[in-house]
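Researcher: Please generate the 3D structure of the following complex. Treat every line as part of one assembly.
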Amino acid sequence: MTDLPHFQLNQAVPSPVPSPAVLAALATRRSAPAQALAAPGPSDSQLDAILQLGARTPDHGKLFPWRFVVLGPRSRAEIAEKLAVLAEARDKPAKDQAVLAKLTAAPVTVLVVSTPVPDAKPIWEQQLSAGAVCMNLEHAAGGFGFSSSWITDWYSYDPQATALFGLTEGETVAGFIHIGTLTEPALERPRPDMAAKVTRLP
Ligand SMILES: Cc1cc2nc3c(=O)[nH]c(=O)nc-3n(C[C@H](O)[C@H](O)[C@H](O)COP(=O)(O)O)c2cc1C
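Model: Done. Output below.
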C-alpha cells in the first residue's frame, strides 16, 4: 500500500483515467473533530507516504515554499503545557485553554509551515501552495483510511507560541493536520449553494 509510483525528472507521468473511487473519496471526505481522533494512526511508512503525497503539490516557481514538522505525542504534550502557561500569562479566555485538547488528541500531527521565499513569486501564491499541501495531506491520509482535521487556533498566530514549534521569522502556520481514526462517523455540515458560488461565462 505504501508502494507509491515514482517518476524520474522529465519522465512522462500517466494522464488521469476515470476513477469512481477518487470521485467517491472527494464526495465523501469530511474533516474529523480533532479531539475525536484516536488510534490507530498512520504507521511510519504510511506517514512517509502521506508526507510525500502532500509535497506533490503545485507551487509557482518550484520554490517548495513550505515544510513539515511531524509532532508525536510527547512533543505535543510538552508544547501544550507551555502553551497553557502562555495562555494563562496572557490572561486568555478559558476557551483558549480548552482548545489545547485538540492539539494533543490525535495519534499524529503534521504541522505545515508556510516558508515563502522573499522577492520570488507573490507571497500570496506561495501561501496558497502551503494551503494546497494541507489539503493534499488530508486526501492522502484519507487514502490510507484515516480521518484528519485541519486546525490553526490562537497559537498559530502568536509568535511566542509558534516559536515553541520551531517557527522562525517569516514563517507562518498553514495548518496543523491531525491524523487518526474516528470511532463514530463525522456528521455532514452545511455546504454552499453552488448556484450562488458559480459564475458561468460563455
Ligand atoms: C486554514 C484553516 C484553519 C482552520 N482552523 C480551525 C480551527 O482553528 N479550529 C477549528 O475548529 N476548525 C478549524 N478549521 C476548520 C476545520 O478544518 C473544519 O473541520 C473543516 O473546515 C470542515 O470542513 P469539511 O467538512 O469540508 O472537511 C480550519 C480550516 C482551515 C481551512
